[in-house]
Amino acid sequence: MKAARYYAAKDIRIEDIPEPTLVPGSVAINVAWCGICGTDLHEYLDGPIFVPAPGHVHPISQEGSPITLGHEFSGTISALGEGVTDLEVGQNVVVEPYIIGEDVSLADGEPYQLSPDMNFIGLAGHGGGLSEKIVVQRRWVHPIGDIPLDQAALIEPLSVGHHAYVRSGATAGQTALIGGAGPIGLLLAAVLKAEGLTVIMSELSTARKEKALSTGVADYVLDPSEVDVAAEARTISGGRGVDVAFECSSVNAVLDTLLDAVKPAGVVVNVSIWGHPATVDMQKLVLKEIDLRGTIAYAHDHAATIKLVQDGKVNLEPFITGRIELDDLISQGFDQLINHNETQVKIIVRPVPAN
Amino acid sequence: MKAARYYAAKDIRIEDIPEPTLVPGSVAINVAWCGICGTDLHEYLDGPIFVPAPGHVHPISQEGSPITLGHEFSGTISALGEGVTDLEVGQNVVVEPYIIGEDVSLADGEPYQLSPDMNFIGLAGHGGGLSEKIVVQRRWVHPIGDIPLDQAALIEPLSVGHHAYVRSGATAGQTALIGGAGPIGLLLAAVLKAEGLTVIMSELSTARKEKALSTGVADYVLDPSEVDVAAEARTISGGRGVDVAFECSSVNAVLDTLLDAVKPAGVVVNVSIWGHPATVDMQKLVLKEIDLRGTIAYAHDHAATIKLVQDGKVNLEPFITGRIELDDLISQGFDQLINHNETQVKIIVRPVPAN
Asked: What's the pTM value of the predicted model, to 2 decimals?
């Protein structure tokens, strides 16, 4: 079957590889669509990061490069391994793409995303969504009912937004400020809007500002080159500040703005991945008793996220800005995202060529 | 009466001023003892900080410099204003030294310490503990039963520790790492120990290390010049890291260590006052989903703090390292704390000369 394989930075190859083998407790899936993630871009430009270093294997998957890429994918079950009795062949599903030790509990409340050596399917082994087929452990498979398979490829990044929302402790009726309207900022906004919050977004890019408004996920879009975002956000929220804020840009000036914009005892969730240390004015953290919280990926979020889409509270369609074939992954996918980063949100890839 | 009055940095004068007037709803107190706080030192060296700037008055107290100093004090009620019926003349009390708007609710759960223009008695008006007498609003007066008046002068900084403990969400049986064994670090350790935690302290100073051990507030004292504090703390706590950590040094290397030492989903509380921005490795915050929380002063903490002392769970006596007269405030108080900062914990001042 065809698969996109990561060898090294700037070296991703579309190759023919053997189909994966169904084993007891696993589920075979024909991949329908797989999104390209910012993390994939980082691996392409500056990797390996999550991908094991050359000559090394991941301690859980025992795999090293070349690694099949792709962790944002949807598909249809083609076969069930021995012992899997609660799913059916033909069901449409998404995968929560974790590589996590078999001994780690997924019971309610367990922070399994923080377990030792956690990594991702499609970055450190166990196959990937940028291939025609994949076999994954039953525990990571989530049925999606009648959600269209193309939109379902966005459930994974939407779950990242859902997890950030959960980490914030925000509740319906509150006001949120999101710094940065890139893909994760927009999908997080969609979750917050669906959960009943008033959403303010801060963004410089004209294309992204338009997207935030045209998709309806932002109630207000503020441009830091035009207004004092913190002051404006405080005014919108009634004076003392927004209840929660989300850093989705890894830009220090944005983080500073969020610390200024939240109310006393407010929460700032850092969603973005920083390539450099941040400078934090601790006096703001202290004098307002701010909580600055990290969030990574998701845990116990997929079911609630899928329900938001099934119930029509989140419409993922407008966030799909490109549909391409696997053979065009670099030219129409990665290069587009790198060179037209502001107009693209999510490009999804079809590993099996359309008839 | 005699009072220590702040005019400007390096300009604190012991002067005769009129006695304060009892008004309805207030309580007149003969001050017994008043501690010198790090905040007072900062005002002395680099102020005015909390003290209103020259030519300005505080928006709530409507007072400006000269300001009577002292916010860590105990005393005995000498008179009750009209309408105060739940206290008695002769009772020993401490004061929660807030200047907060009359309209701010002190009801359960209200974060009144974060209200607009919050400031402190003894820094921005309403008298101070470094004077013979003071009159304060009933709502800030807390009876202390039979706690000795000298130890009671330490209830205020102990409440700061209690509030940091509450902010951390720590529970009995957990392990805490405190970075810095200065006065607040030690008093916080006393609270944590009283609340059933295992306490690890990180400290360079020999005198402070000895104090942490001799007072019994630390189970382990680690010296960062001798051991890898984060690694050692993780080992002590069973491998994955301490449950909570407290920054009490405003030293960036200490903050870094705490981020390394906490477990996944752990909490780092910043207790110290930073004179400069901190550098924070956001990747640590993200990948471990750490909560970095600010804490300031106290709210709803005095009753629980007083009970810890009354129940014998915290012994404040060993933290009193000096007892002086008001006339010796600079020479035996401030100068001692500045020049012998490592051996001193808390110097307390008696505004009324001993017979």
From this structure: 0.96
Q: Are A167 and B289 in contact (CB under 8 A)?
A: yes
Encoded amino acid at B319, one letter: F
Q: What is the pLDDT of residues B154-209, one digit of tens each?
A: 999 999 999 999 999 999 999 999 999 999 999 999 999 999 999 999 999 999 99
- Tell me if residue A319 falls in helix, strand or coil: helix
Residues of A in contact with B285 (CB under 8 A): 270, 292-294
ipTM over the 0.90 cut-off: yes
Q: Where do the DSSP E strands lie in A203-261?
A: 220-222, 242-247
Best mutation target among B285, B295, B298 (most A Cβ atoms within 10 Å) is B285
Q: How close are the terminal C-alpha atoms of chain A, in Å? A: 16
pLDDT tens for B2-45 read 999 999 999 999 999 999 999 999 999 999 999 999 999 999 99
Q: Which residues pair with A195 in a beta bridge?
A: none
Q: Name B11's bridge partners.
A: B8
Chain B positions touching A117 (Cβ under 8 A) are none
Q: Which residues lie across from B28 on neighbouring strands?
A: B79, B135
Domains of chain A, CATH where assigned: 2-154+316-350 (3.90.180.10), 162-294 (3.40.50.720)
Give just the sign of the alpha carbon dihedral A338, A71, A301, A62. negative
